[in-house]
């Protein structure tokens, strides 16, 4: 049986919870970016003080800087269960996806098919749709208009011999339903279709075992997983070989430069290993047994899941019973992440969000770049939804604070 998450220990690892200006403010905008853990902030500070120069050059400080970057790639790879050469760190997931689309555009032929969903963030839809100008056929895997869910059986009608790529999300940033990634990837592989998975809305709830998922490409934003403002892009080597070097021609020998043509942000790359420092510390605090990075990642993921599910159940029950609130996505907490999108009756999402903010609830309202999903579900994307998102460091008292604030705002 997994231990209970020690919130006092967890919150001691995040400087934001000691910040006077944030005192009394309950953070429910984690889907937009989580708080950074202390280890990341410390590494970033150290890099700027000690090694803010060109890494890998001859000077000892440059060598130290390069070693810190190398360690970040290595440790991320071990937690994600992939080879170090398959981890690429770019400026953001949106930018990384754009680079990938340009790379795929060079190998796709006229008449080849790419399948996208209308459930995703626009970053994983628009760049692929743009390939239609090159003669690529874009097909849409559509959600159920009532639930916002994707039906995996629809893929049978979408796959043809010309289908080359399926781009979909691990977890929607609005309806929050967790898709069966391993099963989807297995079906795609059987049809000779490559898969690209947007894991941005999932990774903050526990880093995935990418090898077990079977995704050919997996992307997420590190700044939504307690780290620096970088996009993590895992490209399996077989796919990278097909796509080829997208950077300067003379960087052909350096695989980790292939898909980051602007070059890496040295300090942020080096500091990103702080996320794994935090996960290691969290694991060792809660578990007596050791193990590989993959085993630690699995245990930490269970810790996060169990802590979030208790709070999510309480919030969903309140929303489901309230006559002035409509929930988007599953009511069953086991089927979704702790990202909750609601539509109020009698006021706009913006009006409700402002009332919550006035009561110390940090949240947002809008379409959150999921315009196609909202339109498919009959929701006005101009006003969108109120989104309340939390992670493992959220306290039960903050859920109570949120519910009380909703009560006041909905009167």
Task: Name its key features.
411 residues, alpha/beta, Aspartate Aminotransferase, domain 1, Aspartate Aminotransferase, domain 2, 41% helix, aminotransferase, pyridoxal phosphate
Q: Can you describe what's shown?
A:
This protein has 411 residues and is α/β, with parallel strands linked by helices. α12 (273-286) crosses α13 (293-321). A seven-stranded mixed beta sheet has the order 2-8-7-6-5-3-4, with helices on both faces. The protein has a four-stranded antiparallel beta sheet with strand order 9-10-13-12, with helices on one face. It has helices at residues 7-12, 38-50, 60-80, 93-107, 126-129, 155-158, 181-190, 200-203, 210-213, 237-243, 266-271, 273-286, 293-321, 349-358, 371-376, 396-409, and strands spanning 26-27, 87-90, 113-117, 137-141, 163-169, 194-198, 217-221, 231-235, 325-328, 339-344, 361-362, 364-366, 385-389. It has two domains: 7-36 and 294-409, Aspartate Aminotransferase, domain 1 (Alpha-Beta Complex); 43-276, Aspartate Aminotransferase, domain 2 (3-Layer(aba) Sandwich). It is globular, with a radius of gyration of 21 Å. This is Aminotransferase class V-fold PLP-dependent enzyme. It comes from Marinomonas primoryensis.
